[in-house]
């Protein structure tokens, strides 16, 4: 992973909330101030997801990818953490872009609350949107942290 590589302060970043069935995605503006959710990607395999992420990187001119790292509330690795680390390594290898992991604890809870505030009342409707909103929350948290 690209922990010690200095990533430039401008250019678009792709945020990813990796899942085995649904993948949340978000992109930021060139000045790295605002994250915007993209449509949820429904997947059948990690390879399929990596190919889709690589395609988005080309389409949006991405120069860094941020992947949400699912840790337990105590900071320990969760069941999904190993899969996410493997996904991030493969995205970095395929895209040749720096990939950073960002703690995503409680991002889904925050995303669900944002959707309720936006007027999405039915749980079934929120379930269709929560993954991409989680990716937005992850990416926005990363941006806010870097811009301090």
Q: Would you kindly provide a written description of the structure presented here, covering whatever features stand out?
A:
- By secondary structure, the chain is an alpha/beta fold.
- The protein is 44% helix and 23% strand.
- It has a five-stranded mixed sheet with strand order 3-2-1-4-5, sandwiched between helices.
- Strand 4 (62-69), helix 2 (81-95) and strand 5 (99-103) form a beta-alpha-beta unit.
Task: Write a short abstract of this structure.
With 148 residues, this protein is of the alpha/beta class. It has helices spanning 46-60, 81-95, 107-117, 123-146; strands at residues 12-17, 22-28, 35-42, 62-69, 99-103. Residues 1-6 have low confidence and may be disordered.
* Low-pLDDT stretches: 1-6
What proportion of the residues form beta strands (DSSP E)?
15-25%
Write down the overall mean pLDDT. 85
Give a count of the beta strands, DSSP E runs of length 2 or more.
Answer: 5
Radius of gyration: 14 Å
Regarding quaternary structure, how should these chains be classified? single chain
String of helices and strands: EEEHEHEHH
Secondary-structure-based class equals alpha/beta
With strands numbered from the N-terminus, the spatial order across the biggest sheet is 3-2-1-4-5
Terminal-residue CA separation = 23 Å
Report the sheet with the most strands, covering strand number, pairing sense and barrel closure. 5 strands, mixed
Globally, the shape reads globular
Helix content: 40-55%
Number of helices: 4
Topology (SSEs and partners):
Layout: E1 12-17, E2 22-28, E3 35-42, H1 46-60, E4 62-69, H2 81-95, E5 99-103, H3 107-117, H4 123-146
Parallel strand pairs: 1-4, 4-5
Antiparallel strand pairs: 1-2, 2-3
Helix pairs in contact: 1-2, 3-4
């Amino acid at each position: 992973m690209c922990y010690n590589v200095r990533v430039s302060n401008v250019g678009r970043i792709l945020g990813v909330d990796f899942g085995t069935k649904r993948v949340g995605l978000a992109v930021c503006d060139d000045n790295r101030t605002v994250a915007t959710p993209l449509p949820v990607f429904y997947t059948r395999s990690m390879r399929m997801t990596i190919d889709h992420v690589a395609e988005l990187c080309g389409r949006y001119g991405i120069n860094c990818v941020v992947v949400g790292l699912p840790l337990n509330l105590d900071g320990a690795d969760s069941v999904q953490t190993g899969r996410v680390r493997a996904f991030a390594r493969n995205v970095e290898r395929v895209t040749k872009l720096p990939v950073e992991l960002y703690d995503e604890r409680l991002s889904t809870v925050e995303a669900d609350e944002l959707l309720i505030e936006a007027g999405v009342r039915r749980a079934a409707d929120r379930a269709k949107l929560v993954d991409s909103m989680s990716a937005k929350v992850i990416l926005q948290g990363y941006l806010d942290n870097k811009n301090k």
